[in-house]
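Notes from hallway chat w/ T.B., transcribed later so I don't forget. T.B. wanted the structure written out for a chain they're using in a teaching module, and asked if we could keep both sequence and structure tokens in one place. Agreed to drop them here.
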Amino acid sequence: MRSVSSKNPSTRAAPITVCLVTPYLPSVSETFIRAHESGLPARVVMVHGWRPSIGTEPVLSWPRRALYKLWRVVAGDGLKREVTAAYLEAFRSTRARAVLAEYGPTGVQAMPACLRAGIPLIVHFHGYDATQRDVLAEHAETYPEMFKRAAALVAVSRAMQRKLVSLGARPEKVHYNPCGIDCREFDGGNDDPATRPPLFLAVGRFVEKKAPHLTLAAFAEAHRSCPDARLRMIGDGPLLNQCRELAAELGIAEAVTFLGSQTHEVVRKEMLKARCFVQHSIEASNGDCEGTPVGILEAGASSLPVVATRHAGIPDVVIEGETGLLVDERDTSAMAAHMISLMQDPELAARLGRAARLHVERNFSQEQSLGRLWTIIESAIDGDARELQPSSIVAA
């Protein structure tokens, strides 16, 4: 396994075209994909959807919607050939020199066209695509083939790097490159957590692997010791209503504010009000795990101490006892104890927060992440392409 270090942007005379392949247009929370689109020193063309489109226009014409479902059922391999043809047309028409596929299954979809076009494929894994059991079962045959044919695989955490190797990827192909953030957007302001009230902030979708219900359980325990404590939760998702009900059942409804999905500007302002950032990520029942949570990076850049779990890429970012405090998954009592300690010792919060800012700034900036990713892409373009040969599994 190896890590890559950034280098100066390409000195080539003309910009390289990279096709950025995504399963759909990125959501508000998928800032890392938007950063790849806008921040790489290349001409980046986004090709999105399983009806591959550039902008709002499908690359190829498709059957009428009324016939599509039936056609999908009876066509089988014909549908795969049509998708491959659309990707191939997109790559050739844009004169792409490389393809960056966001998420493992997208890499599987794009692989046949890359092989036919003779251009390198770089597959960027983010979380569920390397851990969720049904995804791994579905791709039990295609992932090993993709690992073999892809020029490079990108993992956003050390745990994910190890996981991809355990699934059969060659260690030298797996590059550790955590997501980065624009540290200029998230600063600690003119004060520090020591001067703020005992306010905790959680940011993330209300889904099982984020375990917002466990964050509420820990906060309820801390609130019993410190009735002045408050919790603000930003995000939306299937567990939101359940968590509203849980807050009422735990007797903390008046102390918890659910803000719903918010813009990055709102998130930034909320971080400037908080004493501490909390996130109780866990492995979901289907195996789904985090990559490296962007919210934790943003909290660190905002000079906030983090109380979180020893899960996935979180320990890569949070240095235990130096930039934050960690607990085992589902240990809400330990999380509550850490929250109480930060309420009772504001100077501890300030010290951890200052160290967190420095750590994120030095190791997890967007410039560093994009620089490392560009190094991987350039190496794939300039490297040996002998492995880009068609195979029986992927030939269209």
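Follow-up for T.B.: The CA atoms of residues 321 and 352 lie 8 Å apart. Might be a good example for the class.
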